[in-house]
């Protein structure tokens, strides 16, 4: 059965009026909500979702039954989000109606905001949804659009491994996504849709919505692979401490009908065996350090293991893909040895630190 998209049909029901026919202060978008039979739909929630770097905000918008009137003037939003309006990056409209699939607009830049336009005031605002004709307004203009809600239909996701086989038992947290704009790529604008576990066929069934989904893998040492796929926006890999590394990979994507297949790569485990020597003799109490691969924030390096009395180091749960390099520091904290993970031998790693340098 063809999986119907929660339709967002935007039909023009009134052309944008010339700016000189309205007062200069009136910049307004009027939205009317209908079902597939063009009957009125009573909206239960309408919000403005706001994004600045490292911050988000949400404003409840007043609803008049099946109508919403949005004031797009700079002064309206500046008075309600004064601290971050100057560096507003983008905004979204998010709308819910009972019995229908919720919808979220495409991101748009508010009139008069600067951050999204490389320092220049935004002279127009474009509000659009994934279907239909966008509304483009300059200050002092008004426009009207009709939004058609669709009945909800479950969204299906299939999870497969690198070999294409279904992955059952994978735990995933799902969200309605709107922001991860921060140094760590942490979801800062996301509403939970619940936790799910894939069945034996690798499938998940998620609630319907016409918005970007964030799918977070709730298992360590697994990442979504960024493969060419319709609707995929980004893959974020969250990094933890080098001791007990805790990866949480996040996929940002629209979900397409009837099914969406995403690939999960699980890191390969191996044992690391090393000997730390000085001029051929084993030395103890030397700490082997590592730095994380693709680390964007937080503690990007730390201790991995310490040599024993025979200079030996054994790490049974070693996952080379987690790290960028191994290194050893001297008493002054400076590196005296380092090696890329790509140069690691398959067998014993021997590290000879050479003669001790005497301080003068």
Explain this structure.
There is one protein chain. By secondary structure, this protein is mainly β. The protein is built from 1 helix and 28 strands. The strands form 7 sheets. It has a 5-stranded mixed sheet with strand order 1-11-2-6-5, with no helix packed on it. Strand 9 and strand 10 form a beta hairpin. It is elongated and about 85 Å long.
Salient structural properties:
single chain; 360 residues; mainly beta; 5-stranded mixed β-sheet; 5-stranded antiparallel β-sheet; 2% helix; elongated
What pattern of helices and strands is seen along the backbone?
EEEEEEHEEEEEEEEEEEEEEEEEEEEEE
Provide the helix percentage. Answer: under 10%
Low-confidence stretches: 1-23, 241-245
Gross morphology? elongated
**Biggest β-sheet strands, sense, barrel:** 5 strands, mixed
Strand percentage lies at 35-45%
Distance between the termini: 80 Å
Q: What is the spatial order of strands in the main beta sheet?
A: 1-11-2-6-5
How would the blueprint of this fold be written?
Elements lengths: L8 E4 L15 E7 L10 E8 L2 E6 L2 E2 L2 E5 L2 H7 L7 E9 L6 E2 L19 E4 L7 E4 L3 E7 L6 E6 L10 E9 L9 E9 L5 E4 L6 E5 L4 E3 L7 E7 L9 E6 L6 E7 L3 E9 L2 E2 L4 E6 L8 E6 L5 E7 L4 E7 L5 E6 L8 E4 L8
Parallel strand pairs: 2-11, 12-20, 21-28
Antiparallel strand pairs: 1-11, 2-6, 3-4, 3-7, 5-6, 7-8, 9-10, 12-15, 13-14, 13-16, 16-19, 17-20, 18-19, 21-22, 21-25, 23-24, 23-26, 26-27
């Amino acid at each position: 059965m063809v999986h119907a998209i929660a339709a967002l049909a935007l039909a023009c029901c009134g052309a944008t009026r010339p700016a000189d026919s309205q007062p200069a202060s009136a910049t307004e978008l009027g939205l009317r909500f209908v079902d597939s039979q063009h009957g009125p739909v009573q909206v239960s929630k309408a919000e403005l979702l706001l994004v600045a770097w490292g911050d988000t905000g949400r404003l409840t918008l007043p609803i008049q039954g099946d109508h919403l009137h949005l004031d797009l003037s700079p002064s309206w939003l500046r008075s309600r989000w004064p601290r971050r309006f100057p560096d507003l990056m983008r905004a979204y409209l998010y709308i819910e109606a009972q019995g229908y699939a919720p919808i979220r607009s495409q991101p748009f830049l508010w009139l008069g905001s600067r951050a999204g336009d490389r320092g220049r005031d935004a002279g127009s605002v474009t509000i659009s949804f994934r279907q239909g004709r966008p509304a483009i307004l300059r200050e002092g203009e008004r426009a009207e659009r009709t939004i058609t809600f669709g009945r909800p239909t479950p969204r299906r996701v299939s999870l497969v491994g690198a070999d294409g086989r279904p992955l059952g038992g994978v735990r995933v947290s799902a969200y309605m996504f709107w922001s991860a704009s921060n140094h760590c790529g942490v979801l800062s604008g996301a509403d939970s849709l619940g936790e799910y576990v894939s069945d034996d066929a690798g499938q998940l069934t998620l609630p319907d919505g016409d918005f970007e989904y964030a799918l977070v893998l709730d298992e360590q040492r697994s990442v979504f692979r960024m493969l060419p796929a319709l609707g995929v926006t980004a893959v974020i890999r969250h990094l933890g401490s080098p001791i007990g590394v805790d990866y949480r990979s996040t996929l940002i994507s629209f979900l397409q009908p009837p099914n969406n297949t995403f690939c999960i790569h699980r890191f390969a485990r191996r044992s690391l065996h090393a000997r730390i020597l000085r001029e051929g003799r084993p030395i103890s109490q030397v700490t082997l350090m590592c730095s994380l691969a693709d680390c964007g924030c937080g503690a990007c390096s730390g201790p991995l293991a310490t040599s024993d009395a025979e200079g030996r180091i054994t790490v049974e749960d070693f996952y080379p893909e987690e790290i960028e390099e191994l290194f050893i520091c001297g008493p002054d904290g400076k590196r005296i040895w380092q090696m890329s993970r790509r140069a690691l031998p398959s067998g014993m790693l021997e590290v000879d630190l050479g003669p001790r340098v005497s301080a003068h």
